[in-house]
Amino acid sequence: xxxxxxxxxxxxxxxxxxxxxxxxxxxxxxxxxxxxxxxxxxxxxxxxxxxxxxxxxxxxxxxxxxxxxxxxxxxxxxxxxxxxxxxxxxxxxxxxxxxxxxxxxxxxxxxxxxxx
Amino acid sequence: xxxxxxxxxxxxxxxxxxxxxxxxxxxxxxxxxxxxxxxxxxxxxxxxxxxxxxxxxxxxxxxxxxxxxxxxxxxxxxxxxxxxxxxxxxxxxxxxxxxxxxxxxxxxxxxxxxx
Lengths: 116, 115
Prior knowledge:
A: mainly beta, seven-stranded mixed β-sheet, four-stranded antiparallel β-sheet, B: mainly beta
């Protein structure tokens, strides 16, 4: 079974530029998550989708970050414009959405963003 | 709010040494508890989990017991190997009855095993 795919693996941009990350979840997984992992910290949830709807985006800095999952499968996360403090690893995860059972999240390898 | 506190690293041990990484949590209700591992250059992987008090999660020689009375979920392994070198994250999520699958992670503990 293929895992969660993410691209690119690395990205270096200058501040005020724009950047986009792509994620393809495990086939059949209805729930998709984007996390931000700053160096030395644990991952922090940015946004959670159930199919193509947003479940939780309370931690997403909406003035510069946006995310979509138009067809309920793959997803893109965009930062526009980027700031120095956005330097981090952006992780995508997916899970089944079975009612009343534990939903393990499977993580992709992440995209390491460096903002200069 | 809910939170996880784990011992700071890096932790450096010799091969075959005994490992303990401490983790305590603060949560309302009865969360599920996890240990995730992140090997160099790879994504997070679930190492083990426990969903109720006194449960013991185990995998690859690692163990952790859900202790409600001390709100702890310490990770242990009797004899570590060089291949165990990684970053370990303690985490929790809400109780299934509330269908809250948001995961809250600790800051991670980097483990170095010397041959």
